[in-house]
Specification:
This protein is an alpha/beta fold. Helix 17 runs parallel beside helix 24. Strand 23 and strand 24 form a beta hairpin. The chain has an 8-stranded parallel beta barrel, surrounded by 7 helices. A 5-stranded parallel β-sheet has the order 16-15-14-17-28, with helices on one face. The chain has a 5-stranded parallel β-sheet with strand order 19-26-20-21-22. The chain has 24 helices and 28 strands. It is globular and about 75 Å long. The longest helix has 21 residues.
């Protein structure tokens, strides 16, 4: 490594003192819980491997996420449990982090009013008595219960220290218990714990003081706090004032925002592509200007070392915390330090990681097939035992990933792409500002194809004769998919959604988008942002059912900001005419959607591969869309594992 490699990020790789600890750089792996747990709430080997990978990758602090301090604080059945019977496995997580030079931190939390009584068997405890909109009864914690909660935080922090963790993070944001007491929205008590900021801060301060007493003066405490971004919620003035209250009690303050407890505000905590990058930096800057006794960290869509360096160089924060960027590539810190930023696998901000954990009980990443499975894959990922000639058909994301992995394992790889450039369906990302993350992925994959030494043949359609000539040992077919075009009268006058990006000058001022799936919706939003009046036509009762819920919520919020974007559901397209798109409603009535230009997005269908599948090749695998039409994540997963099987 040359000295000049790190100078690009001179602030990012400066050490930072946090209490008694010296951070090797300014990158914090912020907490998330992957929930790979044994029945007793202890970590499995998969969880050990997941956090160890982040430490190997070079983060200064690796924070293990979301440990409730008592059973009344559980919100799901899959919460980690740290107690005297599970300390051995928790100690193994801390040891795995520390053995690679990182600092092991444990996030302590409590669900409070959002705890799940069906899981805990207890009525949820919160700042005050209430009946929530879903009918759940919440009990306002009395003095004895408040003291019990304080003790639970202190006892768990002491146990974390005994277990081998170097510090703890107290989660005081996002609508969890500590935030609930601080929030004027959720805390309307009239006793010593409610009303003024000083009273609302009383319980969080008691927790901090008790934790400090339990762990001693030399054990660092980090505290996460943030704007709630909801009417009547915690605002900037109170946030800064609270940070002033705690700056000499904790060793670092981390700034976030939003509410995990409400879908409409959870997307502010975990920003999608419809929100800016670095969303909490200005708030952090205002806190840092007021706080002088401890460093301030910031989290929230900081997705690259360039952005991280920008935050630090501007003096708006002392450290940056990343979650999804280090899920996509845990080795981002080391790659940036060594000047290999082109090798950083980019995060898409798609939230397949979080929503997949919620809906499929499994941590996974759309761009990194290793995520959450490091333990198992470390046992199987080995160089090829014999060098094979591998022919990959198709230069989309699945084909490129297959080619990269196969070449890195030592095989000779030929990648044949029938068009004049790699990228497949991701080529349109060069034109869509909403797809900047997907463009980064496309460019990353193309770069890695070149660096892996793959022989790329453009303008080459693979035929049986070509296969016969090359005599490959393996044929990986990633031929992709083609748009479905229903045989509607006049459909030939419409263009497909992906070509609309490159043919904008041919579109009029009013556009009808036929098909309200994810592709149709995102195309419509892009076209609306160009100033056109756009109407989405969808046969079902809702749009974008193929999007994960957080992406969809955020997209609907973006829709609401575009007054020239309209959604018409319950309409079946029947014809494309010069005047617009003729449709039929559920009662059989004809409804015309006027439009100068028409775009269709009816979905994709696999490119036929029967001719290639019938060839006499020792190993044949169909991957990506031509195996099963889906999103980028499926293609990358298929390509990686197909190459690993060779």
């Amino acid at each position: 490594m040359k000295r000049s490699d790190t100078m690009q990020y001179s602030k990012l790789f400066q050490p930072l003192q946090v209490g008694t600890l010296t951070l090797r750089n300014r990158i914090i792996s912020a907490p998330n819980m992957m929930s790979a747990l044994n029945p007793d709430g202890s970590p499995t080997d998969y969880m050990v491997g997941y956090y160890e990978e982040k430490a190997k990758g070079g983060a200064a602090i690796v924070t293990v996420g979301d440990t409730p301090v008592e059973e009344r604080g559980f919100t799901t059945p899959r919460h980690p449990i740290l107690n005297k019977t599970t300390v051995q496995k928790w100690s193994e997580v801390a040891r795995a982090i520390k053995q690679h030079g990182a600092i092991a931190s444990l996030e302590l939390n409590h669900g409070g009013r959002i705890s799940n009584s069906a899981v805990t068997g207890f009525t949820p405890l919160g700042p005050m008595d209430e009946v929530k909109a879903n009918g759940t009864t919440v009990k306002g914690a009395d003095e004895n219960e408040i003291q019990e909660l304080v003790k639970a935080f202190a006892d768990t922090a002491a146990l974390a220290k005994m277990t081998g963790y170097d510090m703890v993070l107290l989660h005081g944001a996002h609508g969890w218990l500590l935030d609930q007491f601080l929030s004027p929205k959720f805390n309307r008590r009239t006793d010593a714990y409610g009303g003024s900021l000083e009273n609302r801060a009383r319980f969080p301060l008691m927790v901090i003081d008790a934790v400090r007493k339990a762990v001693g003066p030399r054990f660092p405490i980090e505290y996460r706090v943030g704007l709630e971004l909801i009417e009547g919620g915690l605002e900037l003035g109170d946030l800064i004032a609270f940070c002033k209250m705690i700056e000499d009690k904790v060793d670092m303050i981390q700034i976030s925002a939003g509410l995990d407890t409400d879908p409409n505000f959870a997307v502010k905590t975990h920003p999608t592509i419809f929100l800016p990058h670095m969303v909490n930096v200005e708030t952090a800057a205002k806190v840092k200007a007021a706080v002088t006794k401890c460093p301030v960290a910031v989290v929230g869509s900081i997705t690259s070392p360039e952005e991280a360096e920008q935050v630090l160089a501007s003096g708006k924060a002392d450290a940056v915390a990343m979650v999804r960027s280090l899920i996509a590539d845990p080795h981002l810190p080391n790659k940036a330090r060594m000047g290999k930023t082109e090798d950083i696998r980019p995060c898409l901000r798609c939230l397949d990681c979080l929503t997949g954990l919620q809906t499929k009980t499994q941590m996974a990443c759309a761009v990194n097939p290793r995520t959450g499975h490091e333990f198992r894959l470390d046992l199987t990922e080995k160089p090829a035992t014999s060098r094979k000639t591998v022919l990959v058909v198709g230069g989309g994301p699945g084909g490129m990933q297959a080619a990269i992995t196969a070449a890195q394992r030592g095989h000779r790889v030929i990648l044949a792409e029938k068009t004049d450039e790699l990228g497949g369906l991701l080529k349109f990302t060069d034109y869509d500002t909403l797809k900047s993350e997907l463009k980064r992925l496309k460019d990353y994959l193309i770069c890695q194809v070149e660096k892996a030494g793959v022989e790329v043949r453009l303008n080459t359609e693979v035929t049986p004769a070509m296969v016969q000539e090359l005599q490959p040992d393996a044929l990986l077919i990633a031929a992709g998919s083609t748009p479905i075009r229903f045989p509607l009268p006049g459909i030939e006058t419409a263009q497909h959604a992906t070509t609309a990006y490159t043919n904008l000058e041919a579109l009029g001022n009013t556009v009808a988008v036929m098909g309200g799936g994810l592709v149709g919706c995102e195309t419509a939003l892009f076209l609306a942002e160009t100033g056109r009046d756009v109407t989405i036509i969808e046969m079902q009762d809702s749009v974008a059912p193929d999007a994960n819920w957080m992406h969809r919520v955020s997209m609907m919020q973006a829709f609401a900001q575009q007054k020239n974007l309209h959604v018409r559901t319950g309409l079946r397209c029947t014809a494309v005419t010069e005047a617009g798109v003729e449709t039929q409603d559920k009662d059989g009535n004809t409804v015309l959607i006027p439009a100068e230009s028409k775009v269709y997005a009816f979905g994709q269908q696999a490119v036929p591969t029967l001719e290639l599948l019938a060839l006499d090749v020792p190993e044949i695998r169909v991957i990506g869309d031509c195996h099963q039409v889906g999103k980028t994540n499926g293609a990358i997963f298929d390509g990686y594992h197909a190459a690993m099987d060779l």
